[in-house]
TrEMBL record, chain A:
<comment type="function">
    <text>Subunit of NADPH oxidase complexes that is required for the NADPH oxidase activity that generates, in various cell types, superoxide from molecular oxygen utilizing NADPH as an electron donor. Subunit of the phagocyte NADPH oxidase complex that mediates the transfer of electrons from cytosolic NADPH to O2 to produce the superoxide anion (O2(-)). In the activated complex, electrons are first transferred from NADPH to flavin adenine dinucleotide (FAD) and subsequently transferred via two heme molecules to molecular oxygen, producing superoxide through an outer-sphere reaction.</text>
</comment>
<protein>
    <recommendedName>
        <fullName>Cytochrome b-245 light chain</fullName>
    </recommendedName>
</protein>
<comment type="subunit">
    <text>Component of the phagocyte NADPH oxidase core complex/cytochrome b558 complex, composed of CYBB (heavy chain (beta)) and CYBA (light chain (alpha)). Component of the phagocyte NADPH oxidase complex composed of an obligatory core heterodimer formed by the membrane proteins CYBA and CYBB and the cytosolic regulatory subunits NCF1/p47-phox, NCF2/p67-phox, NCF4/p40-phox and the small GTPase RAC1 or RAC2. Interacts with NCF1 (via SH3 domain). Interacts with SH3PXD2A. Interacts with DUOX1, DUOX2 and TPO. Interacts with NOX4; this interaction mediates superoxide generation.</text>
</comment>
<dbReference type="GO" id="GO:0043020">
    <property type="term" value="C:NADPH oxidase complex"/>
</dbReference>
<dbReference type="GO" id="GO:0046872">
    <property type="term" value="F:metal ion binding"/>
</dbReference>
<dbReference type="GO" id="GO:0016491">
    <property type="term" value="F:oxidoreductase activity"/>
</dbReference>
<feature type="transmembrane region" description="Helical">
    <location>
        <begin position="103"/>
        <end position="124"/>
    </location>
</feature>
<keyword id="KW-0349">Heme</keyword>
<feature type="transmembrane region" description="Helical">
    <location>
        <begin position="12"/>
        <end position="30"/>
    </location>
</feature>
Automatic annotation (TrEMBL), chain B:
<keyword id="KW-0408">Iron</keyword>
<dbReference type="GO" id="GO:0016175">
    <property type="term" value="F:superoxide-generating NAD(P)H oxidase activity"/>
</dbReference>
<keyword id="KW-0812">Transmembrane</keyword>
<dbReference type="Pfam" id="PF01794">
    <property type="entry name" value="Ferric_reduct"/>
</dbReference>
<dbReference type="InterPro" id="IPR039261">
    <property type="entry name" value="FNR_nucleotide-bd"/>
</dbReference>
<keyword id="KW-0560">Oxidoreductase</keyword>
<dbReference type="GO" id="GO:0042554">
    <property type="term" value="P:superoxide anion generation"/>
</dbReference>
<dbReference type="GO" id="GO:0006952">
    <property type="term" value="P:defense response"/>
</dbReference>
<keyword id="KW-1133">Transmembrane helix</keyword>
Length: 193, 564
């Protein structure tokens, strides 16, 4: 299991836990269950976890598929620097967030899932993984005409007059397919579609 | 649109039947629990959420029954083989087994959500009515004793007003197994997302075996009989229609209504999942038995670009073109099985696979074989299993597209055709093959080079140069390579591959290719086979639809995609 980046799976699990927390919280609050205020907390915690986990981190090896529209959240998450980069902090944060939701049956599933995600993040942190943001690649603008400084001042070198006669004589003798002074090394076809 | 319908009509029909059954089962169970007199008193406490929970439970049973079936590879292979008289389109449905497995999984997730939410409301209702002291019908019903001596005909599973719903959840079989099942399901789903599956196959493989807990928990989930309905005897004596209004007088001696008695609904999930579980156990036993058979490695070839070729022999092994096997290397990992397409032809006396580095397991395997001075690691083989490539030789005209290492099934097909030509097999239905190989770097070509070179020679000798029309495309080119190629344009053979057919650069323009094929074969059925990425599948599928004529007698393109 040398190459597995556990943080990637922890991220999926945490995102799912966030959604489960939100759902459980809505059910508890809307149904006005006993101690429904834990449900309200669960909704807030779930939204926070979802926003934090939405931007996927960059894989160490290979290309990473971004989630749709994640660049906005990436900018926000990046701002917190080491708080969001370090997975130990994330593991502890998720564990703490999951505890209050454990007091209500409707949200206890969210607690369990978030606690599992916290455990996987801990494993990722122990193996030295870090969250690196996926930066958009700067588009290289083609340097049009970057090397053209000035038009040439001298005509191109030409072979002396005697050498110039030979190609034209050969052309007359061979009666080759190419008519005219220009010989194309690669046949150029005029494609009319 | 017409072409899409024709090509997909069986899939659409199958899915419509499945969805229809789901809807039917849901509505049927919902109405039963909502209207039946047996559950009149239960409904008095719980309301409509009882019916909701039971309806989603029935759908969960149904879908849990279905989910194990698409992954029984050996069973599907057997069905494929026995259905050789069936039409081609019918057999193609078996290719979509993994898609169906995922759809059923999504339906299970949906119904799990409905079931859990409904039961949360149910538990809350039970808890409130247990704590209510207003003498309402609900509170009297909840007070019915749990004492076994008095018949144990309770209704409310919450035995005392002090008991919390959390306590009941974790001490009842139904609650505990429910929690276990749901956590197992969530872990399975999060580790099976496309991203995780493609990048870290081992995480997916091992976590997905949590399904064992899911199935076991599902089997015993209903044992506690928490869903209670009135007994027959009690209904005959004191029918709810007559007695529900007079609930204050149930205990009076002169009232002809007695206290209602309840019994639990027996567990029925095991009835649904028993047969698929047995089939799946047989499947795993079969896989194990096949894997124990001795595999002899006859040749190991290390190709450039880190591609390992293994030629093997196994007693009783017989294959068709384009099939795949699962291999396991106990010295690297005891439990992991990875799929690889066979690259040898059935006519050869060995079978071979080409492996390239794609993750932990493959890297360790290649490293283990690279060491020349230690013993060759033991390999276990399960298979072969059939996929769409078996059908290639059934089409008059075949268009084969392989991207990168995805060319491997077609390597097997081309080799097989070479052997058939050598034996002058006139039963060959295929009259023309168009082969496109799209690759990023040149190094990966080399092991396939020899095959194409010998095929070229073969075709020339037999005078059938136009049977195989192949184009090679290099997508990872740079100006150096192109310049080099342009300079060597006049040479008879390609500078990169040594083949007579020149390598093209960039990606093929499929519209041009398809229209050329359509005009050269106006009355044929053309099979298009792809082993490659999803984006390429989309463009090929579109071209197939666009260039298939609506008249079934004229040119028809059928699209087949390899799925792993």
């Amino acid at each position: 299991m040398g190459q597995i980046e556990w943080a990637m799976w922890a991220n999926e699990q945490a995102l799912a836990s966030g959604l489960i927390l939100i759902t459980g919280g809505i059910v508890a609050t809307a149904g006005h269950f006993t101690q429904w205020y834990f449900g309200a907390y669960s909704i807030v915690a779930g939204v926070f976890v979802c926003l934090l986990e939405y931007p996927r981190g960059k894989r160490k090896k290979g290309s990473t598929m971004e989630r749709c529209g994640q660049k906005y959240m990436t900018a926000v998450v990046k701002l917190f620097g080491p708080l969001t980069r370090n997975y130990y902090i994330r593991a502890i944060l998720h564990l703490l967030l999951s505890v209050p939701a454990g007091f209500l049956l409707a949200t206890i599933l969210g607690t369990a899932c978030l606690a599992i995600a916290s455990g996987i993040y801990l494993l990722a942190a122990v193996r030295g993984e870090q969250w690196t943001p996926i930066e958009p690649k700067p588009r290289e603008r083609p340097h049009v005409g970057g090397t053209i400084k000035q038009p040439p001042s001298n005509p191109p070198p030409r072979p002396p007059a005697e050498a110039r006669k030979k190609p034209s004589e050969e052309a007359e003798a061979a009666e080759g397919p190419s008519a005219g002074p220009q010989d194309n090394p690669i046949p150029v076809t005029d494609e009319i579609v | 649109m017409g072409n899409w319908v024709v090509n997909h009509c069986f899939s659409v029909l199958f899915l419509a039947v499945w969805l229809g059954l789901n809807v039917f089962l849901f509505v049927d169970a919902f109405l039963k629990y909502e209207k039946a007199d047996k559950y009149y008193y239960t409904r008095k406490i719980l309301g409509s959420t009882l019916a909701c929970a039971r309806a989603s439970a029935l759908c969960l049973n149904f879908n849990s029954m279905l989910i194990l079936l698409p992954v029984c590879r050996n069973l599907l292979s057997f069905l494929r083989g026995t259905c050789s008289f069936c039409s081609r389109t019918l057999r193609k449905q078996l290719d979509h087994n993994l898609t169906f497995h995922k759809l059923v999984a999504y339906m299970i997730c949906l119904h799990t959500a409905i079931h859990i939410i409904a039961h949360l409301f149910n538990f809350d209702c039970y808890s409130r009515s247990r704590q209510a002291t207003d003498g309402s019908l609900a509170s009297i019903l909840s007070g019915l004793s749990h004492d076994e001596k008095k018949g144990g005909s309770w209704l409310n599973p919450i035995q005392s007003p002090n008991m919390t719903v959390e306590y009941v959840t974790f001490t009842s079989i139904a609650g505990l197994t429910g929690v276990i099942m749901t956590i197992a399901l969530i872990l399975m789903v999060t580790s099976a997302t496309e991203f995780i599956r493609r990048s870290y196959f081992e995480v997916f493989w091992y976590t997905h075996h949590l399904f064992i807990f899911y199935i076991l928990a599902l089997g015993i989930h209903g044992i506690g009989g928490i869903v209670r309905g009135q007994t027959e005897k009690s209904m005959n004596e004191s029918h709810p229609c007559k007695c529900a209004e007079s609930f204050e007088m149930w205990d009076d001696h002169d009232s002809h209504c007695r206290r209602p008695e309840f019994e639990g609904h027996p567990a029925e999930s095991w009835k649904w999942i028993l047969a698929p579980v047995i089939l799946y156990i047989c499947e795993r036993i079969l896989r194990f038995y096949r894997s124990q058979q001795k595999v002899v490695i006859t040749k190991v070839v290390m190709h450039p670009s880190k591609v390992l070729e293994l030629q093997m022999n196994k007693r009783g092994f017989s294959m068709e073109v384009g099939q795949y096997i699962f291999i396991n290397c106990p010295s690297i990992s005891l439990l992991e099985w990875h799929p690889f397409t066979l690259t040898s032809a059935p006519e050869e006396d060995f079978f071979s696979i080409h492996i390239r580095v794609a993750g932990d397991w493959t890297e360790n395997l290649i490293r283990a074989f690279e060491q020349q001075y230690s013993t060759i690691p033991r390999i276990e083989v399960d298979g072969p299993f059939g996929t769409a490539s078996e059908d290639v030789l059934q089409y008059e005209v075949a268009v084969l597209v392989g991207a990168g290492i995805g060319v491997t099934p077609f390597a097997s097909i081309l080799k097989s055709i070479w052997y058939k030509f050598q034996c002058a097999d006139h039963n060959l239905k295929t009259k023309k093959i168009y082969f496109y190989w799209i690759c990023r770097e040149t190094g990966a070509f080399s092991w396939f080079n020899d095959l194409l070179t010998s095929l070229e020679q073969e075709m020339e000798e037999l005078g059938k140069v136009d049977f195989l029309n192949y184009r090679l495309f290099l997508t990872g080119w740079d100006s150096n390579i192109v310049g080099h190629a342009a300079l060597n344009f006049d040479k008879a053979t390609d500078i990169l591959t040594g083949l007579k057919q020149k390598t093209s650069f960039g990606r093929p323009m499929w519209d041009n290719e398809f229209s050329k094929i359509a005009t050269s074969h106006p009355k044929s059925v053309v099979g298009v086979f792809l082993c490659g990425p999803q984006t390429l599948a989309k463009s090929l599928r579109k071209c197939c639809h666009r260039y298939s004529s609506l008249d079934p007698r004229k040119v028809q393109f059928y699209f087949n995609k390899e799925n792993f």
